[in-house]
Amino acid sequence: MPALSRRTSALVIALAPLVAVPAAAAGSATGCETLAPRACLDTAIDAMGGRARLESVSHIEWQGMGHTLLMEQSYRQEPFLASYQRYHEWLDFTGARVRSEQTLTWPQAGGTSPTDITSTLVMTPQGGDYRSGERSQPLPGSARVVLDERLQLEPMRLLLTADHATHLRYGKPQMLHGVLHTSLAFDVDGRTWQVLLDPVTHLPDALQRTRTFDDFWYAWGDVSEQIDYDNWILVDGIHYPSTRIEERNGKVWRSTQVLTVTIDGATPAGTFDTTHARPADGPIASRWEQPFDGKHPVALAPGVDLYPGAWNTALIRQDDGVVVLESPISPVYTAGLLDLARQRYPDLPIKAVLTTSDSWPHAGGVREAVARHLPIYALDLNLPLLQRLVDAPHRIHPDHLQQQPAAPEWRNVSGRTVIGSGTQRIELYPLRGADTGRQYMVYFPASRLLYASDTLVLDPKSGALYQPELMAEVAQAVDRAHLDVRTVFAMHQGPTPWKQVLALLQAANQGPGEGATD
Length: 518
Fold this sequence. Notes:
The protein is built from 13 helices and 27 strands. It has helices spanning 3-15, 23-26, 37-48, 51-56, 141-153, 155-164, 331-344, 360-363, 366-371, 383-391, 400-403, 468-481, 498-509, and strands spanning 59-69, 82-92, 97-105, 116-123, 128-132, 135-138, 166-170, 174-176, 179-188, 191-197, 204-211, 223-235, 238-248, 251-263, 298-301, 304-307, 313-318, 321-325, 350-355, 375-379, 409-413, 417-419, 426-430, 440-444, 449-451, 487-490, 493-497. The strands form three sheets. Strands 1, 2, 3, 4, 5, 6, 7, 8, 9, 10, 11, 12, 13 and 14 form a 14-stranded antiparallel sheet that branches. Strands 15-16-17-18-19-20-21 form a seven-stranded mixed sheet. Helix 3 (37-48) packs antiparallel against helix 6 and helix 12 packs across helix 13 (498-509).
């Protein structure tokens, strides 16, 4: 560093204690909390453009882009991989209608799979469609909840949502962006929301609440959510945050940037047309709470039965007990699998539950295994995440573990681990690859059968490997352990000849023109 720069830095450091700290940063409240809560909310509404202007907005159309961090399935956890989205939405506040178009770019997709996925969701009081490609299906109940909230959470309506909510009150002031913000709390559908107001501008800088989700975050139960509003722009007399950053459990999860927004513009004919009627209102079951279907097992080897599904599972019979392979999706799904093990083998205890991956939906039922006091074999690298999953509160929708707390009985898989003996034994091997570092495979020596966790998927049309890198790392692990494999299956793939997989891997390793002969 040049001498002048060093002297300048020293001067700044010396003067730092003498610099006055703003009152808000020092912890004193300077917003509108001297007023009644309703008057404070009116001040915020005026700051955004006034009650009359906000209430006059009938509908908006906006386009934007964003990214979502794939915390649920990033190969090495933090820093996380990301997916990317383009949005085009119409929000009709007067008619309670939403049309949401999205193009999702999924970087994890293999070279033989499309990386761009387009979908359209349309919701009206009378109907609802979910469209992807040429398919149109009734809008799932969980999607209807999301779209209903989209109308409430849209920044042009957020303060009006607070205005119509119950029990408006002050919450505890909170620091945000280094400034102490006024907190206005109110109740929506029996749950508390808090809006943090800047003490100077009185604009809503963030929304906070605790809720459950019906996406991959379902496994975490009560999730604290914060949506930060930033990058304010002036749109037809309304101060509007064009950037929304969503945090879940204290980590940034999604960032969305509005590129264009039009208030009360022309809406193309047919924008809100639907082909499916909206189901009658009632309790909406989570898509993760689907019951386990054990009606069609596939015998892979003596004492080894595969139960195909969106997440494959298996039961392994040994002389002294039953080993359950995977505890996926949710406690409800895993409970069905564990109950089936009891029914099929009433004279044998469940001696082990194997959870081979850190992907949230793959381990979503581990809480049920803990609640039943079952030993769980987990990879060493995954134990911190799994412990947090077990510790996560589930008060809003209590599961078995929330109702009957229990301590987990972890079995650390850090190297070759043997369960059972003789011809029935199984062996666990950490994969330790660049993309498979948080998975382990299960080998059945007597039948030369291999379970490869979440590494094998064949394209249903071309038959090619979904992600050749994953299987390359499995093949390397098989060679390191000197395993003799005849058949392989995985979380999302049924039994497949190992020779076929190796041939596909060899084909994937050959570039254009390689392997050709004259």
